[in-house]
Amino acid sequence: MRWVKKVAFWLLLAVIAVYTLFPFYWAIVSSLKTGSALFEVSPWPKEPAWSNYSAVFTAQPFGQNIFNSVIVATAVVVLSLVLGLTASFALARIEFRGRKLLLVSVLAVSMFPQIAVLSGMFELVRWLGVYNKLPALIVSNLILTLPFTVWVLTTFMRELPKELEEAAIVDGATPWITVSRVFLPLMGPAMATTGLLAFIAAWNEFLFALTFTQSDSVRTVPVAIALFSGGSAFETPWGLIMAASVIVTVPLVVLVLIFQRKIISGLTAGAVKG
Fold first, then answer.
1. CA 73 to mean position of chain CA atoms
2. DSSP class of 152
3. Can you list the alpha helix ranges (DSSP code H) found in 129-228?
4. What residues contact residue 53 under an 8 Å CB cut-off, 6+ apart?
5. Handedness of CA 160, 163, 165, 168 (dihedral sign)
6. CATH number at 67-217
7. Percent helix / strand / coil, the chain, rounded to 5
8. Degrees (nearest 5) of the Cα angle 48, 53, 57?
9. In angstroms, rounded to a whole number, what is the distance separating the alpha carbons of residues 219 and 64?
10. Where are the domains of the chain?
């Protein structure tokens, strides 16, 4: 019976792998097709259209769009981690009235759908004078990333030994020195996990990017991909769309592979106490 369980386990893993990897594989296959070949079911195109990948950058300023996404996502990650780290220290290590209510309120913000806060964010962006500018996307994306970052870092910081903080206080360390020099080196897995998830959220965000940008030079990649269009389903350049999708997905895959160990450590931190 043991071999039956082992075979069933590997079959389950195979099914999960195919289920998760097949969409990306099919995107690569579709990115190498043009014309009527896009509507033919084949494991690999007979004549791969590698020109789709170069055409992506000539059809519109896609290189600038990628650069915009990098700037926005990086800025969102930095701000989310800095604000989340300081907020988590206050919520996890300092006793004050209404702390639990504040933490629940922070988490509740992430439960609102984007469309519910879109009009309010538009008024804020217009009041700040950053409409059709990258800061508009940075500010709006913080609503998506900051609540989760604060919640995860607060949970992780609660598990750190209290003796470390007491020893730092005895040595005359200020709260900022305690956070940056004592706690921060121990929070690498949690910072990597929340930072990567924040980067993915900002990289893939579409609604705010569509609403708060107007010119091609400011748009990010999700909106740029959506603007590849034609008059009908047969005229829409699906090959270019899929090629652009593959191009913007590869960096995320590389980041996950690089930080996979820290991500696993961050997600499982605190699950087992010894």
1. 8
2. H
3. 134-158, 162-170, 175-177, 188-204, 207-212, 221-226
4. 31, 243, 247
5. negative
6. 1.10.3720.10
7. 75, 0, 25
8. 155
9. 8
10. 67-217
- DSSP designation for 112: S
- 208, two tokens: 């705010």
Per-residue pLDDT of the chain (274 residues; tens, 9 = 90+): 677 888 888 899 999 989 988 888 888 888 888 777 777 778 888 888 888 888 888 878 888 999 999 999 999 999 999 999 998 888 888 888 888 888 888 888 878 888 888 888 899 999 998 999 999 999 999 988 998 898 888 888 888 888 887 888 888 878 888 888 888 888 888 888 888 889 999 999 999 999 999 888 899 999 988 887 654 444 567 788 888 888 888 888 888 888 777 666 655 554 444 4
pTM of structure: 0.83
Angle at 26 between CA 22 and CA 32, to 5 degrees: 155
What DSSP line would sit under 33-55, residue for residue? --GGGGGS--SS-SS--THHHHH
- Count Cβ atoms within 10 A of the Cβ of residue 89 and give its class: 0-12 exposed, 13-18 middle, 19 or more buried: buried
